[in-house]
Here is the input.
Amino acid sequence: MYDKTTNKGPLDGLIVADFTQLAQGPWATQMLGDMGAEVIKIEPIKGDWMRHYSYGNLYPAGESISFVSFNRNKKSIALNLKDGKGLEAAKKIIQKADILIENFRPGVMERLGLGYEDMSALNPRLIYCSSSGYGSSGPYLKRPGQDLLAQSISGAPSLNGKKDDIPVVTAVGQADLLTSLFINQSILAALQARYTSGKGQKIEANLLSSIVGFHIQEITAFLHKGSSPDRSESGIPNPWVGAPYGLYHTQDGYIAIGMNSVQKLARVMGLEKYNSEAFISNNIIENRDQIRFDFGAVFKTKATWEWLDLLLEEDIWCSQVNTLDDMVNDPQIKHNKMIIEIDHPSIGKVRTTGFPVSFSETPQRIYRPSPRLNENAEEILRDFCGYEADDITKFLKQKAQL
Here is the structure.
């Protein structure tokens, strides 16, 4: 179902020329679309790389579930940017755009004649955002940039997992999606700057800087201490943190225990060994693994919900550990409307995640599914490029042969 109301999102009236592929760029432009911007997705003739790759090799009705995840609220046109007519059409779109976002390797847009200097001369109000793996200069300039590689270089995996285990990267594309958020934050700041100056500017984001910046607390602690923290043997999720923090086995699943006084938790659980003033801290580093092992033995004596009923009554910071199945049916997830259903012309019903922020006066909305390749070409060529019907027919006929 799509929201056909007259309510318009907070970015209504803004036009985005979207040259992005894969994840970090498309999620950024999808969020702009969710907030009301008109997003024109300019794809290669064979389409965004993500149309041909999918998590779990899931292709319902031939559509990549990964592409569907990151490309709602957009229009698609496929252009050969190495062809004069395709390049001309792209420039006409950019001339009307407020924002351009691209995540090619550094130098590609310049070689195509679509670099910032040229496009700024064409459209002085343009906010031009480039995103890459490591930045537009430096020793890694020619290296391939991808989420796993950026996570690995950042040092973050060395913080995850148990002592002596292999470093652990996150299942979610953390570098990709953090960069999406930094892109949007920076674009909105540039829009405010343009409001006062009347001029656009260039923004550069990259995966490596995003994930390093995200670990501000962990890295600052390392720089102060002068050495890396030791990961725990018992699986405390953060090497800088002590007992009783972490996940524990229960009789029927798992429970998460946050920052709590060891003494208070021990008193509620009947663990007399730690029910003294010596253990009042909520972050005991010394002997933290033994403390966790002792609490772990007690947690196994009751079911998760028995522990939650007991601990929440005493204002202990704790929660159940959901599987994805559990999460979809979690009452707070349902209340927050974070699982939504939309119609797709090929797939039918698609369940996906909603928008995580709400606006009181300009609500975000879902008004179109991810586009089929080149689906909106006629409309875009007419409305953005000023082509007449005959020109559109000729253009599409020629393009189909490229």
